[in-house]
Amino acid sequence: MNLLFRLLLTLNATSWMVVVYALKAEWTYKSIPVWGIALLILCIPILLSTLSIRITSKLGSDSIHGCSECSLADQEFLPVYLGYFFVSLSVPNDMTMSFLYVIVFIFTFISQTQYFNPIFLLFGYHYYHVLTPQGTKVFIIARGKVIRNKSYLDFDNLRRINDTTYIVRKEQ
Q1: In DSSP terms, which residues pair with 167 in a beta bridge?
Q2: For 44-79, what is each residue's pLDDT tens digit?
Q3: What pTM, to 2 d.p., does this model score?
Q4: Phi and psi at residue 159, in whole multiples of 5°?
Q5: CA distance 2 to 21
Q6: Would you give the end-to-end CA distance of the chain in angstroms?
Q7: Which residues, listed in sequence order, are joined to residue 33 by a DSSP beta bridge?
Q8: Rg (the chain; Cα; Å)
Q9: How far apart are CA 101 and CA 149, in angstroms?
Q10: Cα–Cα distance between 112 and 163 in angstroms, integer?
Q11: Pairing verdict, β 137-143 and 125-131
Q12: Which residues are CB-contacts of 46 (< 8 A; sequence separation ≥ 6)?
């Protein structure tokens, strides 16, 4: 399940390239206009993001207590997404875009660090770099208000994405 979840997160992180490219290339299908195709393609990462959140219950559980540092990372990934957009706008044709997308997807998946998803921000999640009591920096995705107080640095109901990335799962 962890592999499927990581594949979904990678797809969510990179799918914006396709959305922007589809608009630029003015993709159409039968009588569906360009903006209709773009909206349909835009729905894909939203639906996959929803699915990603739903399957977090299948990931391994963990908890981290007594963290000493926490920094908000929401804004750190804006340059990456701007890069995706600019690259997508400069790609000349579908074949080049396909090749480029596969390369970006593979590198993003292998790096296991690019699990930022702007759709999660819309769903109320925030991204944090947290220093554990053992001195390890981990990346935590948590829903709710921005953490501004050290007393809130205890994380129960974590689900492990990889060795350094977790998502907080609110049990229902």
Answers
A1: 141, 159
A2: 889 988 998 888 888 889 988 888 888 898 888 778
A3: 0.83
A4: -120, 130
A5: 29
A6: 20
A7: none
A8: 18
A9: 40
A10: 10
A11: antiparallel
A12: 119
How far apart, in whole angstroms, are the C-alpha atoms of residue 76 and residue 68? 21
Give the DSSP per-residue string, 54-96.
HGGGGSPEEEE----EEEE-GGGGHHHHHHHHHHHHH--SHHH
How many other C-beta atoms are found inside a 10 Å radius of the C-beta of residue 130? 21
> What span, in angstroms and rounded, lies between the C-alpha atoms of 12 and 120?
10
Residue 133 per-residue DSSP state: T
- Give the pLDDT confidence score for residue 123 in this predicted structure: 92
Task: Note whether 13 and 114 are within 8 A (CB).
Answer: yes
Pair of tokens at residue 69? 């540092």
Distances in Å between the Cα of 47 and the Cα atoms of 15, 61, 116, 123 are 12, 24, 16, 12
Residue 158 buriedness (CB in 10 A; 0-12 / 13-18 / 19+): buried
Q: How does strand 155-162 pair with strand 165-168?
A: antiparallel
